[in-house]
């Protein structure tokens, strides 16, 4: 019996190989944002005494970061709002408030009626290679990319 190569197995399972180097932040930009927020908090210890100490310290932060912290890159929504599909309703409510403010005092808004900012449709640190771009790669190099 001959086994598949790891690359073929990953392809069959739909797993995309990462070509990142260690200690280079090019994975999920929101995870990287969490790590930076975590590490730069004034109460973050230099070392944890144990795994339990790390969990006890970090679990409240994860809850705050995902459920309460309004992210500027997510149009001041929380990751939980985005994940659970509440963003559209929240942004629609914000638009109504802004429309009421504009109707009450249009002179306060110089250029146009205000609109609540929208979160990005997708976020990347290093955008993955698109399938149609792979067709442009010479055959001898395409196996190295995939």
Structural commentary:
- The protein is mainly alpha-helical and 146 residues long.
- It has a domain of 62 residues.
- It contains seven helices and no strands.
- The longest helix is centred in the middle third of the chain and has 18 residues.
- The protein is extended.
- The two termini are 25 Å apart.
- The model has no long low-confidence stretch (mean pLDDT 81).
Radius of gyration: 22 Å
Secondary-structure element string:
HHHHHHH
Strand fraction equals under 5%
User: Structural class per helix/strand content?
Assistant: mainly alpha
Shape: extended
Terminal CA distance reads: 25 Å
Could you state the oligomeric state of the chains shown? single chain
Question: How many DSSP-defined strands?
Answer: 0
Low-pLDDT runs of 5+ residues are none
Q: What would the average pLDDT be, to the nearest integer?
A: 81
Major beta sheet summary: none
Number of helices: 7
**Which percent bin holds the helix content?**
40-55%
Q: How is this structure best summarized?
A:
The chain has 146 residues and is an all-alpha fold.
């Amino acid at each position: 019996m001959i086994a598949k190569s790891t690359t073929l197995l990953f392809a069959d399972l739909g797993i995309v190989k990462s070509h990142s180097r260690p200690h280079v932040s090019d994975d999920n930009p929101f995870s990287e944002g969490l790590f930076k927020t975590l590490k730069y908090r004034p109460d973050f210890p230099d070392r944890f005494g144990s795994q339990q100490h790390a969990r006890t310290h970090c679990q409240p932060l994860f809850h705050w970061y995902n459920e309460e912290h309004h992210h500027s890159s997510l149009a001041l929504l929380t990751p939980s709002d985005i994940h659970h599909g509440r963003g559209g309703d929240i942004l629609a409510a914000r638009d109504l408030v802004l429309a009421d403010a504009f109707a009450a005092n249009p002179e306060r808004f110089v250029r146009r009626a205000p609109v609540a900012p929208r979160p990005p449709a997708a976020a990347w640190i290093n955008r993955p290679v698109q399938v149609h771009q792979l067709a442009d790669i010479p055959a001898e190099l395409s196996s190295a990319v995939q």
